Amino acid sequence: MNICPACGRELKDSNISSLSDHFYSLALSSDPAHVMWLNRNISKKKMSEEGLKSEFLKFYDFTEGGLANWIRKRFVEKFFGEKPNPFVKEMQRPSKYTIMGYVTEHYHFLRQWVKSCAYIIARTDFADIQKYEFDNIAEEYFGIGNQTPHIELLLQMGESVGLRREVVLGSKPLKKTESALKYWDEVCSKKHWLDAMVSMHSLELIADKNVKSYGARYSYFMPEILDGGVTKETAHFLKAGYDADQYHSGEALAMVERYAKTLGMEMEVQSYFLRSADYFYGYLESRQERGKMYEKEL
């Protein structure tokens, strides 16, 4: 069942007409969420009902390049375009307070991440999906073999810039992070496992080192900072994510594309990706907000 990417409402029919009619009706009544979404993603111009439908058809069209590449393109436009997410811009040459904000909010994100992956495992019978998610949980939270889990590397990164782990462990997520975590928990525990998978694993594109090949003006950070621009613990964490997320996002999106076609869920998957990306945008803003709080406090 398709959803509205602006409000999450479930639509009876999984087709462009239903989605376009939904937006047209709410835009006519000047609903802020839908007007803002149209302004950001479709056009700021007022359109006829048929005109809006035509624009939605263009926006959702993935025939050139496939579904996975459509997701990459939309993600890059949103987070790495001419107006990148504020946290991405700050990460080009991050201050210690930026890193502190990153550590604190991302700690809460990772706690939800393992639950999200576990929900996917529990809600599908496909062994390749289960194995993929199992490996994700191990790598992020428990470590594989002699490798240090990413959550420990995260805490070590915080300590290297003066942020005690007790402060992180005792913190509560900021409002936008809390809202995003609630959304991802809801999707992963109650919606189709494929909607959950695209909602979570599309987010790993944030640290994909190949984003510039998809038109990004920025990458997650300037690679040269790994050679002396940050603490060695920060470089270790960022490099681990940089290497892992490129592999993770590529494999996950290939699975999403394959199963979406098999299950006839392609448009639904697109809408869940778009909805999740909006929550992720706010979550990244929380990292920046937390960093500014630390700068005032410390």
Secondary structure blueprint with pairings:
Blueprint: H1 16-28, H2 32-41, H3 49-60, H4 67-79, H5 86-91, H6 96-123, H7 127-142, H8 150-160, H9 165-169, H10 175-190, H11 193-201, H12 232-263, H13 266-297
Helix pairs in contact: 1-3, 4-13, 6-7, 6-8, 6-10, 6-11, 6-13, 8-12, 10-11, 10-13, 11-12, 11-13
Description:
This protein has 298 residues and is mainly α. Helices cover 68% and strands 0% of the residues. Helix 6 packs parallel to helix 10 and helix 10 runs antiparallel to helix 11. The longest helix has 32 residues. The termini are far apart.
Features:
single chain; 298 residues; mainly alpha; 13 helices; globular
Short description:
The chain has 298 residues and is an all-alpha fold.
Q: Quote the distance from N terminus to C terminus.
A: 48 Å
Percent of residues in beta strands: under 5%
N to C succession of SSEs: HHHHHHHHHHHHH
Structural class: mainly alpha
The Cα radius of gyration reads: 19 Å
In one word, what is the shape? globular
Count, helices: 13
Uncertain spans: none
Largest sheet: none
> Mean pLDDT, nearest integer?
94
Q: How many DSSP-defined strands?
A: 0
